[in-house]
Design goal:
Elements (H helix, E strand, L loop, with lengths): L4 E7 L7 H14 L4 E7 L11 H4 L3 E2 L5 E2 L2 H9 L8 E3 H14 L9 H17 L12 E6 L9 H14 L4 E8 L12 H12 L6 E6 L5 H11 L6 E5 L6 H8 L2 H9 L11 H12 L3 E8 L9 H13 L3 E8 L5 H6 L1 H12 L3 E4 L8 H13 L4 E4 L1 H13 L7 E2 L9 E5 L13 E9 L5 H5 L5 E8 L1 E3 L4 H6 L3 E5 L6 E5 L6 E4 L14 H10 L3 H17 L33 E2 L1
Parallel strand pairs: 1-6, 1-7, 2-5, 2-6, 7-8, 8-9, 10-11, 10-12, 11-22, 12-13, 13-21, 14-15
Antiparallel strand pairs: 3-4, 15-18, 16-17, 16-19, 19-20, 20-21
């Protein structure tokens, strides 16, 4: 049996250098060389998972098919590599200590004094070896290479057990099976304009002092490293100059894998892992084309994201990327209007008129409105007002999770005249509870107690926009993360007033999709379609939102219908491939559709 190859990515000097993007890009580059790749993210915090962490502090919580609530970097891995990871691909200190303590309580250590070394470090190594063998690309058997990202910065106290475990692990798997890539910062001081190497020298020295010697140095800087700077780093860090790579600032991060390829990062990795004779040259033709197209997009489509955590775009990272995937497919430059939901409310008009006017100006200047998921009552009334504005003014609207619940509340208040209609999350004593707590939920424990992971939604009619966008399927599987749901006792009343529930779960009592048929595009979903979006295969509902905002929805739906006819002719009516067809009123335009994930920055305003 072939031995697994491991690539470890660490970071030094400062946090936020882009280790996740670097690790994802390395994985993509290796995959483009014909290797099968899996990924593991190590987060040194004590939380069991990311489920209870605030998005404004740590970014979004990414949800996997198996219901795992994980770090957002696993979303990067899935999008770059087009794989489906498991909850065990995210290792945390909390998980490791819980595992060790459970073994101690069972008596597995046979009376030994349980210590960080060897018991915690052994548990980490065994976890890595076990998870690396799990296939994540839909094929049988383990991958060829496992890319491991160690979160945090070298020198952090909380990461010390992992550093020691990985130092032992490098000897455990043996020479030729372990490659360490250290991502560090080479700052440029404005005063002298010189690239300074001392921070990286200290970072590498610290790493070596902890028992890990980097094979490759990936240097973040505003510009490419000068040759003399590389020579200096080579001399003081004991790394060959050809194994020092520059990750300088680029127009969009699609270029990062191309930077790695152009500097022969794959060859450096193959040399360490003894893969030079088996791997092939990377095939990134489609990726290169997409990066160039992304740079050339100039015609804008403006989407207002009305949310609670708009101060940190990472809070809605997957939503943002799903919008980008759809925008690129429609050949549009994404412009995001970040609208703080609470600034739309009447109280803000009294307390801060400038913020109120600015928020409404951003909302009204948008081509489409998106209300993402969230928790808590802050900004809820502002989201309700945004949903009402989109509904009454025929502005394309997409509500995700809480966003769908907001749309139901607004409809009940404005159309049914139930002025106190609300969710029991925000008003437990409301007389008209449109949204209620799920019966199987826990009111005492927050972590891991929601309705999580991939769940099936069955379409109730074949004559609605959502089913057409999904290629006229009878059902779809999307990822969920919620503990409140539409009150089934109010469904008939809402439907009679014009709010259609076009998607439900297998019981027929849990509402999954809402639509207003007379509206150009007004859709809300209980699930999170953003988590499964890919640029060559954008989420159907995000594609619909962007297409409607560009007045291309009819052309897109015609394109999907024609594609489905072709599938039926070849006996593949229920194809698993989502169609992303772009079109204009006069003629359909070229689109980007392929199996390789791509990544692009939008314009934020």
């Amino acid at each position: 049996m072939k031995k697994m190859k491991y690539v470890l990515v660490t970071g030094g000097v400062v946090s936020g250098l882009g280790k996740g993007v670097t690790a994802s890009s390395i994985g993509l580059l290796l995959k483009a060389c014909g290797l099968r790749v899996t990924s593991i993210k190590i987060d040194p915090y004590l939380n069991s998972d990311a489920g209870t962490m605030s998005p404004s502090e740590h970014g979004e919580v990414f949800v996997l098919d198996d219901g795992g609530e994980v770090d957002l970097d696993l979303g990067n891995y899935e999008r770059f590599l087009d794989v489906k990871l498991t909850r065990d691909n995210n290792i945390t200190t909390g998980k490791i200590y819980q595992l060790v303590l459970e073994k101690e309580r069972r008596g597995d250590y046979l009376g030994k004094t349980v210590q960080v070394v060897p018991h915690v470090t052994d548990a980490i190594q065994e976890w890595i070896e076990r998870v690396a063998m799990i296939p994540v690309d839909g094929k049988e058997g383990p991958a060829d290479v496992c890319v491991i990202e160690l979160g945090g910065t070298i020198g952090d106290i909380e990461s010390m057990p992992f550093i020691e475990a990985l130092s032992q692990f490098s000897y455990r798997v043996g020479a030729g099976n372990f490659c360490l890539i250290h991502v560090s910062l080479v700052p440029v001081l404005n005063v002298v304009g010189e690239q300074k190497t001392k921070p990286t020298q200290h970072s590498v020295r610290g790493l070596r002092g902890l028992g890990l010697a980097p094979n490759i140095l990936a240097c973040r800087s505003t510009m490419a490293l000068d040759d003399n700077v590389k020579e200096k780093l080579s001399q003081f860090c004991h790394i060959s100059a050809e194994d020092i790579i520059t990750l300088y600032d680029v127009p969009n991060i699609w270029h990062i894998p191309l930077l790695l390829r152009d500097q022969n990062a794959h060859e450096a990795i193959f040399k360490v892992l003894n893969l030079s004779s088996t791997a092939k040259e990377p095939s990134l033709k489609e990726w290169t084309t997409r990066a160039e197209i992304c740079d050339m997009l100039h015609e804008p489509v403006r989407i207002a994201i009305v949310g609670k955590y708009t101060g940190l775009s990472d809070s809605y990272l997957s939503v943002l990327k799903a919008l980008l995937h759809a925008s690129v497919a429609c050949r549009k430059k994404l412009v995001v209007n970040w609208v703080p939901a609470s600034d739309l409310e009447d109280m803000t008009e009294i307390e801060n008129l400038d913020a109120y006017n600015a928020a409404w100006k951003l909302l009204k200047s948008a081509d489409g409105v998106l209300v993402p998921g969230g928790f808590g009552d802050r900004g809820v009334q502002g989201k309700v007002l945004a949903a009402k504005y989109a509904r009454e003014n025929s502005i394309p609207f997409l509500g995700l999770c809480l966003g769908m619940q907001i749309a139901v509340i607004e409809f009940a208040r404005s159309v049914l005249g139930l002025k106190d209609a609300n969710s029991t999350e925000f008003d437990p004593n409301t007389r008209n509870p449109c949204i209620i707590f799920m019966p199987e939920g826990s009111r005492t424990h927050l972590g891991g107690t929601m309705r999580l992971g991939s769940r099936r939604t069955y379409f109730q009619t074949m004559d609605c926009k959502s089913v057409k966008l999904y290629g006229n399927r009878k059902f779809i599987d999307e990822r969920h993360r919620h503990r409140y749901e539409v009150n089934p006792d109010m469904v008939a009343l809402l439907e009679n007033a014009g709010l259609s529930f076009t998607g439900k779960d297998e019981t027929g009592r849990r509402m999954e999709i809402i639509e207003i048929h007379e509206h150009p595009y007004y859709i809300g979903v209980q699930f999170h379609p953003e988590f499964k979006s890919r640029p060559g295969n954008p989420s159907a509902l995000f594609l619909g939102l962007i297409a409607a905002a560009c007045r291309q929805l009819d052309a897109v739906l015609r394109g999907i219908e024609s594609r489905e006819k072709v599938n039926c002719e070849i006996g593949n009516c229920q194809s698993n491939k989502k169609v992303c067809q772009n079109g204009y009123a006069t003629k359909p335009a070229n689109i980007i559709t392929d199996a390789i994930y791509s990544y692009c920055n939008g314009v934020h305003s």
